Amino acid sequence: MTVTQALETALAAKAAAREPGSPLRLSASGKCARYLAYWLHFPELIPPPTPRGLAIFELGQAVHDWVRGYLAAAFGGRFHSVEREVELEVAPGLRVRGHTDGILETGEGPLLLDIKTASARSAQRMHEQGVPYEYRAQLNAYLEASGLERGALLVYVKDTSEMFELPVRRDPAVVEQVRQRFLKVAQSTPQALPEREYARQSLACAWCPLQTRCWEGAGEGR
Q1: Choosing a second label site near 139 at 20 to 30 A (CA), which of 147, 156, 171, 192?
Q2: How far apart are CA 213 and CA 81, in angstroms?
Q3: Which InterPro entries match (predicted)?
Q4: What is residue 69's predicted lDDT score, i.e. its pLDDT?
């Protein structure tokens, strides 16, 4: 067995052992409600990450830690609340939890940071079109749960090691969309899933691992 094969085997074993977890978490705030309901009611349908997917995820986590280490060194105690648990009240008796990447105290007040990694192509799209909806929804959920108004998406470009930030202000309309999304998921049943949020030809559907099953069941609940 070569070194590369050994690494791939270890990644494959770890990927296969990963549990899908709960879809009712703030990191899923911008995902399609129907996908989240499939995840809630049929977790066995959620494929485990591929070895490559797990490697990308873990490298992203390493970048998170690296960036936060330098933020702490640069700002000292002004950068805080790393991995602080927060809760978004969706409805009476329904709270969705998440963990913040960190908060930076600035002259204009606290700034909630959300750290992401991106390819050069995705980064260029963000420069041209702004923060993608899924990220805006996620940041708005954390802002609402933290009681803050200002946030920023801090992006590390994997191809070039460029870093840039995009501001995001709390948007009550987006917060309400997030609440309604989680509420629809929580109130769904295996026989009555939420409506699809995207057209079949959309990029969101193209990347969804449940696209075929979801659209095969059009008009049939599951």
Answers
A1: 192
A2: 40
A3: PDDEXK-like_dom_sf, PDDEXK_AddAB-type, Restrct_endonuc-II-like
A4: 97
CATH topology of domain 53-189: Lambda Exonuclease; Chain A (3.90.320)
Give the E-state strand segments of the chain in sequence order. 79-80, 85-91, 94-99, 102-106, 109-118, 150-157, 163-169
**Can you give the residue ranges of every domain in the chain?**
53-189
CA 10: distance to chain centroid?
25
- In order of 75, 78, 174, 216, the CA distances from 30 in angstroms are 30, 29, 9, 23
The length of the chain in residues reads 222
- Phi, psi (deg, nearest 5) at residue 33: -60, -35
Average pLDDT over residues 11-21: 84
Q: Please compute the mean of the pLDDT values over residues 70-91 and round it to a whole number.
A: 97
Nearest to 81 by CA among 26, 142, 165: 142
Per the CB < 8 A criterion, the answer to whether 158 and 119 are in contact is yes
